[in-house]
Amino acid sequence: MPINVTQASIETPAHALSGTEVLTAFNSRESGLSPHEANAARERFGPNKIPAAKRKPAVIRFLAHFNNVLIYILLVAGMLKAVNRDWVDFWVIIAVAVVNAAIGYIQEGQAEKAISGIRDMLSLHATVLHDGLWQEIDAEYLVPGDVVRFGPGDKIPADIRILTAQRLKIDESMLTGESEPAEKNTDNVGANAGIGDRTNIAHSGTVVTQGNGTGVVYATGANTEIGHIQDLVDSTDDLKTPLTAQLDNLGTRFAQAILGVSLILLFLGRVIHDMAPSSLLSNILSFAVATVPEGLPALVTITLALGVQQMATHNAITRKMGAVETLGAVTTICSDKTGTLTRNEMTALAAITPSARYEISGTGFGRAGDVTPAGPTTDPEGVAELARIISLCNDAVLRENGEMWSVVGEPTEAALAIFSDKQGFDSSGIERTASIPFDSAHKFMAVRVANPGGGTDDVLLKGAPDVLFSRCTTQRAADGEGKVSFDLAFWESQVDSLASQGMRVLAAARCPASSFHTNIEFEDVANSLELVGLIGLIDPPRAEAIEAIAICHEAGIAVKMITGDHVETAKAISRQLNLRPDGEPVAVTGAEIEKMSRSQLAEHVVDIDVFARTSPEHKIRIVDALQSHDQVVAMTGDGANDAPALTRADVGIAMGIKGTEATKEAADMVLADDNFATIEKAVAEGRRIYDNIIKSVVFMLPTSIGQGLIVLFAMIFGWDAPLAPTQILWVNLITAVTLSVALAFEPAEEGIMNRNPRGRKARLLAPWLWIRIMWISVLIAAATMGAYYALNHAGVDTVIARTTAVTVLVVAQMFVLINSRFLYHSSLNLHALTGNNVLWISSGSLLTLHLLFVYAPFMNTLFDSTGLGFAEWGIAVGAALVIFLIVEVIKASQNRFYANKHR
Ligand code: ATP
């Protein structure tokens, strides 16, 4: 592809040009564009955004809502009505189906909008160089000519000609289908090279798996390779979840039951009652239509979508709808420590050299503070060398901002850079020529810089103490003269003393660089390092995490800490977090996990609170072991290597601030604030949403079954029908429009985090809920029929009796809606009338429509209804009240029995 002629005036493809040529083509340079140039380019090239993929046409999306077995029943019934020339019935049935599809269509549209709006919150960031200063910007603002940098886990924000690359590998499978990450370098390639062969290009949307690099942007937005193929990518969000499948299944079984009973009715009507075919058909169709719970299919989508929106307001951004329902079932949360359970506000507190210990004053990113000896001995050269290593082997950028530093980079690195500044080290003018970036898999970082004393270059390292210790053979001599052999016992005792105070400890070491090449290879730092010293940093626990952990324990959810940090540091923090309220936390290290077989780990995993010095692959084993106990596992992650574990977990949770793009992509949910407390809130929200779906089903099914029973009984006993078929259809139509979504808006029921999780194998509707559903169905049917036959018996006109029966049905549904607000609590209090305004809007609309049915002359003609007096209304309200009270008695007795099971 020629370099985007729309974006530059040159025709040669970027991969066939040198980095400098591409920079020149966009009037840029190695120090990047100036902010002014970048703004001007933004005007010219527009935002770095790929236009949204085309959606399926609206008609297709609308028609998809008819593709459900319950709706098929309605449609077949409608067709048969048309054949029978029952036009009013036909139109009402069609109206029920169309209105229902319209509701589903609108709800789904809102759900999709909610989800994609929330996805937009996860905007991609880029680190860009403007006039020699690195800064983070929204990737949308990138322009051709911008110089950017990228590291492990980063998603490439635009099409980029690579300018520098250190051990850079990029996963390009989304473009090339090649599953192995491609090695990248800066060499020119031929103009005809295919995408997979452009080794000097980082393509937009691909993910860095290893190493780091810089490059110049040459194509943005729709002009990128991914922009070209975006049209081919179907980006429609999948709104299907396990719960929708479960409800579809319920719908299918319901439909089968309706067909089965219809056949029995056919037999009864024909053989026993010898009914005329047309009235028999009409009755059977009434039964079928009355019993179809047409609101069921759309219910889950809207409830989950509302939940997704709600969660987003609490900083939990759901990437997959299914996560919402799974969250509600979580039994174990495995959480990272740094930044999630702790504040990630690192402050270096202690520095240790072979012969002295220093204290560092000042807090957080404040600029004030000193490095002073903490004991009788001093080692000014030692601590200065420590500061040099820590400062040069560091990617954080500090910028003065009044009393504070403003920081680009990781808090650990920033805290270390601040320590070096307090120690008075100035890194300006010193350039690194090669590096091995930090990765939580190997847990150290190394850089190559010129030796200040001349001669062979220095390799400077910082990293987890145990990792560096295993590579050290010497240490800086106490008197600063040369080096002496490495004293492992001394250093381990120093690490333990810092770690047991909850400090994160990093070691600093050095060695001469290889003279055989200009890079740093892993073999170059495999042994013979010289240890220079240790730094201890504190990172206090988040107060809200302590509270959230207590709530999780109350809710029957286990919380486990999985960290790359030292076991003593992790244990000290877990004590502060009260991870094990009844005793000392049980901890294992990654090395110990390594020695365990799969079954051994499975045997112990439930009892372990802290997993320390773990690597990303241990996380997969931990998830696996927990899942072997049928646990529903939520797992957090931030590094690129965490992605597989997040995929394996039932709910993969990525960090929004600290997390790499690769992790976010693999996650079901992203925490915008990286905060553990947000997970706990999301679990509570997941439980609320699941409850609301169950509540809606428990409300919807009795309405349908009750109506079905009315037709069924009248037919079986050959009685006069209490409701005309059109009337049943009408009730069906108006309740579907009004009441069916009200319960999706229910706030959480009291004590929602005081019961145990519902568990992996829980059925959608427990048997006791089926019993409740059947009771309510029978009560609604009995009240409606009772009202009709009593009035009929008393000689009241059939039209009045029927209108009263319809009114009983409608008012009873409104009351049952209030019963259904609480699954586990009584609705017999004022609380039942507050907290959900949608409920009142729905009920008000239903009542208005029903008043039309009763009093509007044209409705009277259409539906054979008539105006009612106080007495009839009194019957309706009285009957509904009795149903309400009986349902409350049923709930109370069931809850007494089941409450214990739920606690
Ligand atoms: P988690 O977020 O999972 O709790 P963590 O952030 O403590 O873990 P890692 O980031 O994997 O874990 O860090 C592991 C160890 O590597 C740390 O304890 C520290 O000793 C060392 N380390 C951390 N960051 C750096 C860095 N930037 N450079 C060198 N070493 C580092």
UniProtKB/TrEMBL annotation:
Gene3D superfamilies, per the entry: Calcium-transporting ATPase, cytoplasmic domain N, Calcium-transporting ATPase, cytoplasmic transduction domain A, Calcium-transporting ATPase, transmembrane domain, HAD superfamily/HAD-like
Signal sequence segment: none
Subcellular location: Cell membrane
Top-level taxonomic group: Bacteria
InterPro entries: ATPase_P-typ_cation-transptr_C, ATPase_P-typ_cation-transptr_N, ATPase_P-typ_cyto_dom_N, ATPase_P-typ_P_site, ATPase_P-typ_TM_dom_sf, ATPase_P-typ_transduc_dom_A_sf, ATPase_P-type_domA, HAD-like_sf
Record's protein name: Carbonate dehydratase
One Pfam family linked to the record: Cation_ATPase_C
Catalysed reactions, semicolon-separated: ATP + H2O = ADP + phosphate + H(+)
Gene Ontology cellular component list: plasma membrane
Cation-transporting P-type ATPase N-terminal domain sequence ranges: 13-86
Lineage of the organism: Bacteria, Bacillati, Actinomycetota, Actinomycetes, Actinomycetales
Topology class, membrane: Multi-pass membrane protein
GO molecular function, one term: ATP binding
Transmembrane stretches, start-end: 58-78, 90-106, 254-272, 284-308, 697-717, 729-748, 769-788, 800-818, 838-858, 870-890
Entry keyword set: ATP-binding, Magnesium, Membrane, Nucleotide-binding, Phosphoprotein, Translocase, Transmembrane, Transmembrane helix
